[in-house]
Amino acid sequence: xxxxxxxxxxxxxxxxxxxxxxxxxxxxxxxxxxxxxxxxxxxxxxxxxxxxxxxxxxxxxxxxxxxxxxxxxxxxxxxxxxxxxxxxxxxxxxxxxxxxxxxxxxxxxxxxxxxxxxxxxxxxxxxxxxxxxxxxxxxxxxxxxxxxxxxxxxxxxxxxxxxxxxxxxxxxxxxxxxxxxxxxxxxxxxxxxxxxxxxxxxxxxxxxxxxxxxxxxxxxxxxxxxxxxxxxxxxxxxxxxxxxxxxxxxxxxxxxxxxxxxxxxxxxxxxxxxxxxxxxxxxxxxxxxxxxxxxxxxxxxxxxxxxxxxxxxxxxxxxxxxxxxxxxxxxxxxxxxxxxxxxxxxxxxxxxxxxxxxxxxxxxxxxxxxxxxxxxxxxxxxxxxxxxxxxxxxxxxxxxxxxxxxxxxxxxxxxxxxxxxxxxxxxxxxxxxxxxxxxxxxxxxxxxxxxxxxxxxxxxxxxxxxxxxxxxxxxxxxxxxxxxxxxxxxxxxxxxxxxxx
Amino acid sequence: xxxxxxxxxxxxxxxxxxxxxxxxxxxxxxxxxxxxxxxxxxxxxxxxxxxxxxxxxxxxxxxxxxxxxxxxxxxxxxxxxxxxxxxxxxxxxxxxxxxxxxxxxxxxxxxxxxxxxxxxxxxxxxxxxxxxxxxxxxxxxxxxxxxxxxxxxxxxxxxxxxxxxxxxxxxxxxxxxxxxxxxxxxxxxxxxxxxxxxxxxxxxxxxxxxxxxxxxxxxxxxxxxxxxxxxxxxxxxxxxxxxxxxxxxxxxxxxxxxxxxxxxxxxxxxxxxxxxxxxxxxxxxxxxxxxxxxxxxxxxxxxxxxxxxxxxxxxxxxxxxxxxxxxxxxxxxxxxxxxxxxxxxxxxxxxxxxxxxxxxxxxxxxxxxxxxxxxxxxxxxxxxxxxx
Lengths: 501, 388
Description:
The structure holds two protein chains of two kinds.
Chain A: H1 7-10, E1 16-17, E2 22-25, H2 29-40, E3 45-49, E4 58-61, E5 64-66, E6 72-73, H3 78-83, E7 93-95, E8 100-104, E9 109-112, H4 119-126, H5 128-147, H6 149-152, H7 170-174, H8 181-192, H9 207-211, H10 213-217, E10 224-226, H11 229-243, E11 247-250, E12 254-260, E13 263-269, E14 274-276, E15 279-282, H12 286-294, H13 301-307, E16 314-323, H14 330-334, E17 339-343, H15 346-357, E18 366-370, H16 372-375, E19 385-395, H17 405-419, E20 427-432, E21 436-437, H18 442-454, E22 461-463, H19 477-495
Chain B: H1 19-25, E1 30-34, E2 37-42, H2 46-55, E3 58-61, E4 66-71, H3 75-82, E5 95-101, E6 107-117, E7 120-125, H4 130-136, E8 143-146, E9 151-157, H5 161-167, E10 179-183, E11 186-195, E12 198-206, H6 210-221, E13 224-225, H7 228-238, H8 280-285, E14 291-298, E15 308-311, E16 314-325, E17 330-338, E18 345-349, E19 356-361, H9 365-381
Helix pairs in contact in B: 2-7
């Protein structure tokens, strides 16, 4: 007589899944770009998301909606846009060559079109003497940007001895250059936004040529507002990925990266199951990717130490503000679809940095804002407006010790009043996205990118997390580079007769 | 394990726990500083000390080595990552040697690890690696302590070392066991070591008892003490390069100076197929070596300082250290040879047109092991060979 099988055999146990060429961990824009390009290259790809990226616009106050993430794109990698045909999959720019309105601490304004080279004419109205100087200055920054353009884009650093001074600080290059110090204030604000360096620190100069690298190369003039913000970019990338057959999986049960001998073999899950693939691309942070998933025991000591390096204590935060009306001010109301910049004076900048380093908030900070409801009126009820505002610098707190919201609100209120005078009167609600660590200075970021890209020590593991990127703007370049390296690796594996699956 | 290079110009050296005993035997009163510890170069005469160490047994103060205890659940994981030693395979009481590599796969130092208990290991290095250990231990559940000041370390070197130790009441029955036990109430650990070509034992015990055991051993076996100069002959005969003299530790090297395990002639101490040690990947990916350390037997009694090695008239390398070998009745030297220096016979002399003497590459204990290791590695990976 046949005995019934023991219960434990019937219970579904952990599964080992295979049949994949590559797994992408994290559904960030760079992760999706990497997934799409690998799938286009002929690999079968699975993206593992943990639900961190919002798919829908968010109602942060009754009737007021916002899109999380950066509403402004810098120069989105042309290779990704073309390769994945993103325009066909829904990417569109609401405004290109964003006009910028700069407000200074004395409430004066400066308005200029998207191209930095147009700035000198506008500045001429403010200080006729400086128009010429600014034109020369922008040209010199463009020269730096062009010379370092290939380096910024991921190539080798080409240094011309005697002319290149990478260690220069912003203040060193700006101080005393213009008669009207407000021009210095603006240039400083433009360069320092989201960065971890103070204007007095070495290497801070690099931020400005990097910021204008796209303009200098004539690729995309200035900054552009994506229709629907970062969420819409993610949606377009997802659609492109799906068109190339990428599989998506929602799970937060990934325990570790499977490392078998010298190479990655996929991911191990909490229940003992595995998803196996010879290529793993991580779009998570370097800490999560290397210390969390791979583990220190499998990393070189120097590399693990680098990945565990303390993060800067400076951070940025994005706030969404609901207003029942825009302030009644001609300069704002005439064109609310601009980019607004608050350029504090040198003293204010210094104070803001000091307070952030001491863990306090409240001083008027550098800020960049858009009014998304001016582009898409459905984001706010009739007459109302939403403002998306990036504040920098604020103090970085760990997860256990959340940044005091009251302090952030105070800083946001003060800065909003500087950006849009009188906006406080129509205030309805404010909502903050999670505090983001400041982005590494260009020279450090370049080193980080190189080390994380090349020295993982594990075949088939590629990295396109935030540390793989230069600068703070959405660019997708690190995703493209990870996909290119992964495809090269796959081709080499086939050539060498290794089983790729 | 051999001592790292002496620093003759260092300040006043500290006294090791065995200094009193060593000083009382030192007729020559010739001292130097190794890692800041006083170390005797010669006690009575180099020839006599060499004779005892090479054919009988001699006492050595091993105090100048750096010693760390690593204790904790992930002690083995940490040491397997920090060093190339096969820590995972060590049973309690066993001991093994290896190297410490940096992230670029270059040699930082020698490392010997003895497993004293379940999760208690003793790490011995020739130079301090405190900072490296401190960085490496982040994220591991371990307690690391530098115990160099707290323990006396006594070596008995020579083919009759075991007999001498047994005569003094030490339990040295097993070949591998780093036995932990007590002799006359003194807690100690005994482990086998190799000092260049000579076998030996190392006895580690509390510093307060330093002189008790030294005297006990010395009287029981009628032993003499051997100084650094005699030991240097042994180590060149054995083919073990000295850190800081024959090669520069990667932690102190200037660009281009650091050497890989293959370059220092010890590839068997860092097998690429042994676990995931730090620097393994870079070492495996390193380009073909540009120079190699080798031992040359010279047709002369001594080698002048700053000598060069010539091959068919062209300079192909330099002498890094040399000593007169009473065994071979000629000088032996370590030389750094360019990878292009193919051949077995060379000439040694000063730059310019001075006199030159002939030299041949000499096989040593280490180079034999290295050769066997290379052959086995090739046999294991060469797909052109038919599978047996």
